[in-house]
Amino acid sequence: LIKMNQKVDYLLPDDEYKPKQPDFDKIKDYVNISATTNEGFAHERDVLTPAPKILTPPPQRERVSMDDVTDFPEQLVVPLAESRPYEEGRYRPPSLPAFGGLFPTHMYLHRGRVYDWCACGHTQTGPLCDGQCKWILTRCRPVTFNVSESGYFKICNCKMSANAPFCNGTHQHLFKWAYKNHRGFWGLNLLTVWWGTILYWQFTFYK
Question: Hey, how many other C-beta atoms are within 10 angstroms of the C-beta on 157?
Fold first, then answer.
């Protein structure tokens, strides 16, 4: 008799089903690391965000009048900094930035000079900041950095690089990620059909 777990279509009648097993000695020490760097714990991925604090109300007041204000604990308001430090591969945009370009900018940087990389994507002098983030609704602030040696560097334009302001190749995967959801799938395909139709009309208009 053949057991259910041994019925495999591509096996010969005399073959025995031997599924490949993982190396348990090798994977026993593996740790699951989130691809989004501890999603949900903003204080662990944002150096400018303080750790969360559970607010508890004070004791009930003995006398309540119409002129009273709320006695709920005052929440800590953290002002946005003018810029962010270079986070050495742990950068995450605090809020969704605008897409600044398909490819990184190949830019010559001078040793010792301080630069402010645009993190919001709305700059008109990209990839460097021109202060647009102060006039729009965003928590993104420029990343202040410098380099130890003068030379050409690839500066991120997609605003999603974990090694911002330097490119780490994330822009190569953005279209793949967008194409996997229905909005990106139809958006990219309809855009292709649109421009394909325009080109077809241009070349066949006088025929």
Answer: 21
- Output the pTM of the full model: 0.62
Q: Would you call 22 exposed, middle or buried from its count of C-beta atoms within 10 A (0-12, 13-18, 19+)?
A: exposed
Q: Domain locations in the chain?
A: 105-175
Question: Nearest-CA neighbor of 113 among 155, 150, 87, 141?
Answer: 150
Q: What is the largest CA-CA distance in the chain?
A: 90
Q: Respond yes or no on whether the N-terminal peptide bond of residue 57 is cis (omega within 30° of 0).
A: no
DSSP 133: G
- The confidence band for 143, taking pLDDT boundaries of 50, 70 and 90, is very high
* Number of other CB atoms surrounding residue 167 within 10 Å: 21
